[in-house]
Amino acid sequence: MPASRSQLEFIRRLPKAELHLHLEGTITPETLVELSRRHDAAPLSLDDARAIYQYQDFSGFLMAFKTVTERLRTPEDYELIAWRMLERLAAQGVIHAEVYVAVGIVYYWGHTEVEPLFAGLERARTRAERELGISTYWIFDAVRHFGPEAAARVFRKAAEMRADHPSIIGIGIGGDERRAGADVFRDLYAEAREAGLRLTVHAGESVGPESIWGALNIGAERIGHGLTAIEDPELIEVLAQRQVPVEICITSNVRTGCCHQLIQHPVRSYFDAGLLVTLNSDDPAMFLSDLEDEYTLARNTFGFTDEHLRELAANSIEASFLPADRKVEILRQIEQFC
Question: Is the entire prediction scored with pTM above 0.90?
Answer without folding.
Answer: yes
